[in-house]
Sequence to fold (310 residues):
Amino acid sequence: MKNINELLGTKYPLIQGGMANIATAELASAVSNAGGLGLIGAGGYDVNWVRTEIRKCKALTDQPFGVNIMLMSPHAKDIAQLVIDEGVKIVTTGAGSPGIYMDAWKQAGIKVIPVVPSVALAIRMERAGADAVVAEGTESGGHIGELTTMALIPQVSSAVSIPVIAAGGIADQRGVLAAFALGAKGVQVGTILLATKECPIHENYKKVILEAKDTDTVVTGRNTGAPVRVIKNKMAVEYLRIAQLGLPLAEMEKLTLGSLRKAVFDGDIDNGSFMAGQISGLIKEVKTVKEVLSDLFDHIDQYKASLEVL
Ligand SMILES: Cc1cc2nc3c(=O)[nH]c(=O)nc-3n(C[C@H](O)[C@H](O)[C@H](O)COP(=O)(O)O)c2cc1C
Fold:
């Protein structure tokens, strides 16, 4: 099996999650410069925004970086072509199957790494030609599946022969080692990178993460089939209340419209959607991206050797 650092062209076996509205060239280049794989999160942005960020990122780092494409975006097709035109080396995909783009990406020499929430989708992605998969547990921040990282990673690792990258609930060396023990060859992190100096989110967002306890996230959107893990605030509680009443979708959408932007750009504590994972409770200070990556991997062998197991 191919070494994941070789596949990604990185020092550390780490991918930064492609967080919509947050994973700009600023964050992606900081991660790539620190030895991980930075990603530009295309989210719902159009091709012009993504092109600008790709070009900014090229100016800010000479290390490899990638683009995360949300396949349900109306701009997905154009962005799929853009990554070819701009010579992007790695693409990760969310919210569906990238099958229709696979041939063109492979011909362009792009490494394709879909994010999957289940064994079935991992197998489908391997058959479609994926170079690796990110298997993402329900502990993660943002859009999530049902299975926990603990149950998902070993099952996906046993089911496919391409490398598996674990995501969800990883924020220190214990998490990294656990992921490796479960069969992963690398990790993808999102929540811990929110609490970094380089992360371009409102200071209130960082404060919310630092203050969160283990039980402070909830899942909205289960009723609409698009579950999202967020920090429990006024908006999330109100959303869950309305969801229980079975009100029409339009009512729910009124509440959530633009709510991620309210969190990211305005730091609106009450009305923002502060997407974050269950591991938020472990995060107690804002560090540089370089410090985060170093803390996750440097001297990990010493930590491993110090573990008292059985
Ligand atoms: C604020 C936030 C936004 C996210 N947005 C996206 C996204 O647009 N596309 C995607 O593939 N994953 C997204 N994710 C998931 C991350 O890419 C990553 O897999 C996840 O954060 C890993 O779990 P962790 O939060 O426990 O570290 C998001 C996560 C967070 C915290």
